Automatic annotation (TrEMBL):
It comes from the Bacteria. Residues 12-82 form the Glycosyltransferase 2-like domain. The keyword Transferase applies. It comes from Croceibacter atlanticus (strain ATCC BAA-628 / JCM 21780 / CIP 108009 / IAM 15332 / KCTC 12090 / HTCC2559). This is Glycosyl transferase, group 2 family protein.
Amino acid sequence: MVNSLDVQAKAIKEPLEIIILDDGSTNSNITLELEILEKRPLVTIIRHAKNKGRLKSRLALANAAKFDWLLFLDADVLPCASNFLKQYFLETELSHPFVFGGVSYKDDVSPAKEFRLHWLYGKTREQRDVAVRQNNPYSTIVSANMCVQKSSFIQITSTNATSNYGTDIIFLEAIKQSGKNVKHIHNPVYHLGLEPIHRYLPKQIEALTTLKQQVEAGNLAAKERPLHKAYLSLNQFYMTAIFQNLYSLFSKYIMANLNSASPSIRCFDLFKLYHYSKLYN
C-alpha cells in the first residue's frame, strides 16, 4: 500500500506525509518492513508497545499529523485506482469534513474455505454502491478508507476513544450526533486482510460486547441498531428463551455451515443474535 501511495504522491505533487502506526506488532517481518519504510522521505513511524484499539490509534495518528486533512487507511487495504489520492485531494476543497470512499472485495479471487465467511460478509454487507451509501450516509460508513478534516475528527473522537474491538459503531454515532456533513464517493480500496474463521468469530463476539456496553451507556441510538432491534423484538414477544433453545438445538449445523465453503449470511445473523441475546442472560 505504501508503495502505491508513494507513487501517487509524486504524481500529484501536493504536500503530504505518510504516518504508519505500529500497534505493538511482534511479527519480525513487519518490524523489518517498517524499518525499511522509515527510510523514505515521506514516511514517519509511530510505535505503540501494545494494541490500543482502532479509535485510540487513529487519535494518535491525528495528533501527530502536520496537515489539516487526514486520509485514514487500514493496513490491510489497497487503493483500487491509480488516481486514488487525487480524488481525495479534490474533495478537501469542498465543505464535507468526512468523506468515505468505500470498500471492495475482489471478485476474481476465490478465498480458501477458512476465509470464506469474512469475504462473503464483506461483499454482502460492506461493499455498497456509492448511491446506496449516500442515501443512508450514517448507517453505511466503513472507516477503513476515509478522508477527514483533522479538527472535526479530533473533536468527535477524543471523548469516545476506547481500546475495544467493534468501535466503528461508536465512531458512526459520534459523527451523526455531531451533525457534521458526510459525503460518500466512489474511491474504493480493496480489503485484502481477510480473517480466518477461528479468529473472525471471536472478534465478532467481542464487537457484540462493545455494542451492548455502548447501548447500556446510552451512547448509541439502540433502536437504530438492527441487531439490538432484533433482540428487542424477541423480548417483546417473550421469544428470547425459545430462540436460544432452538439455536442450541441446531448450533452444530449452524457452525458447520459457517465453517463451510458456502457459508450463509443468514446463519451468521443467527449466530450473532444468539450470542448477543446471551449477553443479557
